[in-house]
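Lab notebook, bench 4. The sequencing result for the construct came back, and we need a structural model before the next group meeting so we can plan mutations. Quick request posted to the team channel:

Model the 3D structure of this chain.
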Amino acid sequence: MLLARRESDGLWTQDLYGERPRYVGAGHGFAGNVRALHGAPEWLDDAAALEAQAVAAARALAILDGPTASWPSLPTGSRSGAPPRVQWCHGAAGVVTSLAGLAHGDERHGALLAAGGELVWRAGPVARSAGLCHGTAGNGFAFLALLERTGDERWLARARAFAMHALAQVADLRAAAGRGRYTLFTGDVGAALLAAACLRGVAAFPGLDDL
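Done. Here's the predicted structure in C-alpha cell form:
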C-alpha cells in the first residue's frame, strides 16, 4: 500500500492533522518511507528501482551550499516558506540516517550524504532539545550512519562530541525545569542511547532499526 501511493517524483502526500503535506524528511515524509521500504526488500518487486528513484529524489531536493547540503521540510513551491531545519525529523540529519544505506557504489550519493553530515556538524548541537526527534541526539546518529557507510573515524569523533553535549544538555534542562522528559523520541533517553551507540560504534537508530 505504501509503495502504491508513491508519486511520480518519489514522494508521498500525507494525510496529517487535517492537512495534506508532502514532507521530505525522516519523521513524517519521503526519507522515512524510503527507509521503511528499503528495510524490507522481500516485500518489493523491484528494490533496485525504488533505490534509484530515492537517490534521484534526494539529489533533486537537496539544497547545496559549498561543502554542505540540506533538504527542505516541504518541496520547493509548497506552502512553506520556512528555511530548512537541521533536525532528524525535518532536515539533513534524518535524510542522512534514512538514506545512508542506499546506493553504496554511488560516489555522488555518498558525497551528497557527507555534505548533509557536514551541515549538521557546522550547525552544531540543537539548542533546545537533547532528544532524538528534533534534538542533539537525533542529529548525532547522522554521524554514525556516515561512519557505517564510509568507515571514516572522523564521523565517530563527531558523534561522540554530540553525545557528550546531549548528556550535558539533559543535566542542564533537568536542573532548570526540575524534572526530565520521558518519551523515546523527545525525552532524555535519546542522549543515553546516542552515547551507548557511540561506545559500540553502531548506527542503528533507536525504535526503528532495533525492532
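The chain has seven helices and two strands.
Will bring this to the meeting.
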